[in-house]
Specification:
The structure is a homotetramer. Chain A is α+β, with helices and mostly antiparallel strands and about 280 residues long. Chain A has helices at about 40-45, 55-70, 75-90, 195-210, 215-230, and strands at about 5-20, 25-40, 95-105, 105, 115-120, 125-135, 135-150, 175-185, 235-245, 245-250, 260-265, 270-279. The first copy, chain A, contains five helices and twelve strands. In chain A, the strands form three sheets. Chain A has an eight-stranded antiparallel sheet. In chain A, strands 4-5 form a two-stranded antiparallel sheet. In chain A, strands 10-11 form a two-stranded antiparallel ribbon. Chains A and B meet through strand 1, helix 1, helix 2, helix 5 and strand 9 of A and strand 1, helix 1, helix 2, helix 5 and strand 9 of B.
């Protein structure tokens, strides 16, 4: 006897680019959307009965159709609207999850910027997810692709050694990471998600540089604490910090002495540090 | 008040290439290893105390050092040996997880093949993970990057329609996917992991082509069932099947009639179907 | 005064998947096509006059339309047919170039294989390009993504040293590369491009393993020579061989002695060796 | 008889990260370097004689060693110093080419910015290449990865139609591209390469938005002309502009009317427009 114990289906990588055409200026939003249903779909899997299966092609169409019908909004708001729409029309979907990654664009030119010319921002993507299960809806926000580096005020020492340890201790190294953060809210109803995202982004940067870093672990904690201390709406934040190693080059074979100037940036292998900071 | 509620740290993308030099022939194994500790590391995060922190650089060294000391083996065996080694030396690590993705190589030339010349196989990677928590160890195996396509014996019809549905019904389409499967075992001690991996790989292919596919969902079920029906050691299998859409090109604007010959292969967006089949 | 000195425009990454539905078996061809016109387009660039500009969208449509109208063939033949079609209809295009990269698929199952089930081959892509300039047409063929590795019978010694040289000499190392080869023909009219491609692919493999490799350079020469010696139709072959470094791990800090068994495969930086061998 | 007709060898993807530690502020430069020799290396290829072959590993070491010995500078200056160094020590290398791609970093925080905290800039990479052949040295500069988009003031109409043309004409579309530009100089000796790069970057943006775009071709010309008209040191500029299609979604099946608001951003296939503008 075999049985289906969990299931999920949906559409990934739906790219929506939206222009709001104001009288004198255009606004743009650039969302990549993923949709995922799970629930009472056993007959689809086990018997090939598609009668309750909304095509993933329809999910894609819905992103574009609802984008047209709804006013432009933050990705959290749009994700929630999509999830509620799908849940209302698909009772079999006991859980509907919508994930959005927003690529940010800046206006070209000096402030106030070009009315319809844009270039991508450098500061990380805005992540949002909405999950609707029956009458319950939850929102999570996040940031990804935010690269931070400091050239000093970081070290790693007094760590455990065993027979395979060769790493030298240091009190001055480069620290670099690509931040991925995801956070949830104490109460979701009245959040200004856009303003909160910018605040969190600022506090992650501030937490990264605020103090001497004895380890990525401790800096993760400092960054998470910095966010919670300044954003009262946030319940908890999960951080994922790859350690983008910048290794000092050994110049001694060339008769030269390294003084913290010449580094090789490596991609693999990399350390990966994660943690959740909660109120 | 803030607290750390979960944590994990480790090293990713440790690339180990291993040659076993037999008298007349060499064997190769090509493993990419990830290691992840979680446990009683609050003082590291919250106080910057590294005294219990084994450097991720040491984790990397250990992969190479233990590879030298241990005989060559399947990735499941090596993952378990690594996880046990780390758990034994790091009481704070309440859970140690080791993930391995093996790239397979074939011998060059006709059978029995070149003694030391190789080229990558075409048939998917071998995934293995071992998790050690105290005295308990669990093994999971998997396959990724296994691309399967059939040019007929697949359709999608009788599905739910709503106002955003434009997809035509079809009883003859291309079905293509990149299989990612992960499975666990009823009892782990006496498994021949290498032979089992090849068996599962074969049965996934067989399940994919065995019957008419009314949906990716139903084919997922057929593939999972085919594996469980033929591999008694396996307790359950999770399958993740992206739908690699091959869309028939509308040739009517050119005065031509399509007959299931000319397709455009698209990358985004894509359907994604998941499910777990359990005994 | 400014002027336009050269120009080119076209469409890239047109993905054509083609099924030939035989009575009992299907055949598949998987082409990614690029098209590029250059010629008398100054008024388009300098004056915004589009009257001679065939849209790149039309180029894309033509790939699918001609695929329907023409019998299935090798990528060289299809590239030439496309280039001739475009040149005939666009006198301003003094040169039309069509590039095709074919992904190869194998049948699933044991020989003779499944009638309509497929999985990608492991042995490199088939490249083809056709260039039509007036009445003159030239064909080039190639292979890419062909990964070859040997675990011994390779070294690198007696090289030039300067003050920055630290590389130790070796007479036993791993040699690995991803072959990219492009070749032209003495006379193009009567070539069986498919058979030739398979022959070249075999001879590149044979040349790679045939003898001790004192350097990538010398192995490049041996591979090119092996192709020219056995394929009389080929005029010259250009080879591009990245050196996929597999470095022996220094195990001495762990009290272990390396014996050519444990390697780290690195991705960057990499050596890159190129050369053309001509009859 | 076979012969070697051209050759090249070198090292690619050498990642140099350089910190200049000022009294109160650090500066960073992030270069990825490629080196390529070609010349009288026939004996290396054809006979396995390595006596004139400087190892590519030494090329890599030289990047780090010379970075230490030379003051920090623009990538053009460093590329030239490297190329001259290699040419001086390797008479067989009739041509030495050094390519650098610089990733730009901004300071974290408000102006004047953090003394040692950084995040990547959003505005394109700085490319530089130096080629030394005997006593002759040439410099080229460039920009890559500069993404520009405008939401209106762009169209495409009055183009050639044939039987495969289905593209509708439009006078209002999104225009988006990832600029790759490469330029050379009238006289190289006295250029401030850093200032020039910023100027060119500005003028490319200005040229992109300055006027209505009847085609990518015409905008390419406008961008190139804008650079030449304002940068007297530049002799010519080559531009490569992929057309990042943002297609209006057809909302009519949902009973909705599109008004230039809802687009799907696609990745493949894409138009690709190139041209050189010369003084």
């Amino acid at each position: 006897m075999t049985e289906l114990t969990d299931n999920a289906y949906g559409k990934s990588n739906i790219h929506l680019f939206r222009v709001t055409r104001g009288a004198s200026r255009h606004e743009v939003r650039d969302f990549t959307v993923g949709i995922r249903f799970s629930g009472a779909y056993q007959t689809a899997y086990c018997e090939g009965d598609n009668s309750h299966v909304l095509p993933t092609d329809t999910m894609k169409n819905t992103v574009y159709g609802l984008a047209k019908e709804l006013p432009s909004s933050e990705p959290e708001d749009f994700a929630l609207a999509l999830a509620r729409h799908f849940a209302a029309g698909n009772a079999e979907a006991h859980q509907v999850r919508v994930d959005i990654a927003e690529r940010k664009w800046d206006r070209l030119g000096d402030l106030p910027g070009h009315p319809h010319g844009f270039t991508p921002s450098g500061g990380g993507k805005h992540l949002a997810s909405a999950t609707v299960a029956g009458t319950r809806a939850t929102i999570e926000s996040g940031v990804s692709d935010l690269v931070l580096l400091k050239t000093t005020d970081s070290g790693f020492a007094d760590f455990r050694k065993d027979r395979f340890t060769t790493l030298p201790e240091t009190s001055d190294r480069i620290l670099a990471t690509t931040v991925e953060a995801r956070w949830s809210y104490l109460a979701e109803g009245t959040i200004d998600y856009g303003a909160t995202w910018h605040e969190v982004n600022e506090h992650l940067r501030a937490g990264f540089t605020a103090a001497y870093s004895p380890s990525v672990q401790q800096t993760l904690w400092a960054m998470g604490k910095c966010v919670l201390d300044t954003c009262p709406a946030i319940a908890q934040i999960h951080l994922r910090l790859p350690n983008l190693h910048h290794l000092p080059v050994d110049l001694s074979p060339f008769g030269l002495e390294g003084k913290g100037e010449i580094f090789v940036a490596t991609e693999a292998p990399f350390g990966l540090i994660e943690g959740t900071v909660r109120r």
